[in-house]
Amino acid sequence: VAATDKDSANSSLTYSILSPPLVFYIDASSGSVFLVSPLNYESQPTYTFVVMVQDGGSFNGSNQLSSTTTVTVTVINVNENAPQFSDGGIYGAVLNNTSIGTNVLSIQCNDSDSPPYGNPFISSSGFSGTPFNLTQNRVTVSQSPIGAGIYTIPLTCTDGGSLSTNGSVFIIVPGPAAPAFTQSIYRWSLPENTSTGVVYAQVKASSSDQSVVNFTITGGNGDENFYINTKTGDIILVQQLRYAVQQNYALVVQAQDGNHRQGHALVIVQVVQGPGQVPRLSALLSVKQDWPVG
Q: What's the rounded Cα separation, in Å, for the pair 46 and 40?
């Protein structure tokens, strides 16, 4: 902001903001306006404030004159947030004799940016060769009967700019007389500093012929962060999880009975962010012993 005064040198002018927004600061001498904290288009797209300029007045500081002007700051919308799937993916279960055209699940992908960036769309080339179709955000049955097993299909959600996020659709189709889990989908939350070597969860399944069921993790454990006890279904954390690295894990657990029939379930692990590290300050100073107090 710049002003002139015909009565005196411009260097005697003083600038100030009347009822200033907390995000702006003005240099009293130069009139330069500075940003104090980051702006966010989604929170507030424009700011308006009044700047006052005041001269030095008479030689003794009296009779000061002032003027005001209104400043409007327009925040430019940028694409700063990638779209996100819920839980990092979508999960569902369907019987193997489900009719063609039946809706299995709906996919939700959200973007916190304002339009045009905040209009994400979902795409996938992974449905080819599967008994399912993707139409906009709905997954439907495309053939029946459906082969038993668990189908993992990759997805991509792209926003109106250039940012995208990858996820997966997991669809469980139980086979006839296959071991049955007590739940199709298990969900647990773990703080990122959870101790390793401790049982934090358990899955359970039973066989229709009462034979022994053995458990294995067949997917989603590429980094081998988790271990499952083949007999009890206890799940143990092997490596500490880091929220900054990955926020969600989808483990595919298989239960196989004595007749080699297989059932499947999903274990969804949400990593909860832990408290940040407390910053530590240190200083090393040199002083002379005869320096005066103060």
A: 10
